[in-house]
Amino acid sequence: MSQYYLAREAQYQPGDKRVCREGTREGLLFGIELWAQDRNGPPICWLTGPHRSGKSTIARTIAEKMTKNGSLGASFFCTGRFSFKAPSDTFVIVPTLAFQLAQNYSKFRSSLKVQPAYPSLEAQVNNMIVRPLKESAISTLIIIDALDACEDEERMVSLLGRLASEAPKVKFFITSRPEPGIRSSLDGWKVPVFYLDCES
Hints:
This protein is an alpha/beta fold. It has a single domain, classed as 3-Layer(aba) Sandwich (Rossmann fold), CATH 3.40.50. Helices cover 42% and strands 14% of the residues. The protein contains seven helices and five strands. Strands 2-3-4-1-5 form a five-stranded parallel beta sheet. The longest helix is centred in the middle third of the chain and has 16 residues. The chain is globular, with a radius of gyration of 16 Å. InterPro entries: NPHP3-like_N (IPR056884), P-loop_NTPase (IPR027417).
């Protein structure tokens, strides 16, 4: 996958100290963990709040917890700055998520057939994410932090909706500011929403 845009710096790194201090945000974290563990619950969970309210800290803390129990499949923190220029953030997010899923799940890796190039972004999404997830039928959690920082956020939400429909064993925890476009794109999914007001 070396020919694709892989943003390793955007992945959660075990041992990252930028997590919630012990004894803080306990109720919020517990609620998100309950959602993540409920196999029959909604496939998408949204944490929203204003700038610098602590969303990324929560996302890293959830990533830490899910890594420890083996249920984190992939993560992408959109607030990172990449060492390369890509056509759009989606061209970075898709292969970076696929790379992590292939590392973590042999069934996904076996289903992933990477081509030198795809004719469109939709073809890349279908071949690198949708089809391997459907064929491998893995149960996992994917975290996307700061979705509003993505250049084509509504397109990404549309992609998440498609994945939620076609790969029902996969759950998506996303964070963003309360952007109307993201909110409207999530309508109809019965998405549990957690709100943050300020850092505590």
